[in-house]
Amino acid sequence: MSIAPTTATIRAACGITAILLAFGTTACSHTGSTQSATSARPRPSAPTAAQSASSAQGIATAGARYVNRRDVCSALDHVSLARALGIDAGHLSEPRFSDTRASSLATCDHQYGAAGMRSLISLEVMTSKEGSVKGFYEGMRGAHQRSTGVTDVPGVGQQAAAYTDPTTGPHLMAYDGNLYLSIALIPVNSAVTEQVDTQQLLIACARGVFNELRQQ
After folding, report:
1. Does residue 39 fall inside a structural domain?
2. pLDDT of residue 115
3. Cα(51)–Cα(139) distance, rounded to whole angstroms?
């Protein structure tokens, strides 16, 4: 099953818009390009700027400090993912990066598997320059819970949760300190992923990203 570039581009654009709106930022510099997402499937509403500002007042003392990357694909363990999903087939689109005074956002869409049988790992990483992203995580979790079942996942960052989107498959969201991430396996290719514990795969990916981006 091939993956249309427009699907990942639209999804990334929606994620970028939701996160930047949540942090109340508009002016930013970009690496790479995004396209209009007017035809995209409606996504759960993100937490508002007021909610994020309110949560920032109660910044968590636990959690590490993280620094985002322009090429956040480099934070993935491609060897382990290729072992689970098939050969490393490269980027679906170039990694994207946006930076503002308050936060930075990086996205990665990377393919695995032979042509016609590919799966996509889609990663979004947001780091705040103003403190904990706990309120943002809780807002996103609540938004998704209104439309699908969400299950807490222990042992990943300070908090994590998993859900399955009927269109794009299994997702994991998590936060630790000033970093929020969302990672998905799109699509669930039955010929490959029936033999894979997709939640454990996403958990391993998330832990790897936290380790790679943690500030020493």
Report:
1. no
2. 85
3. 8
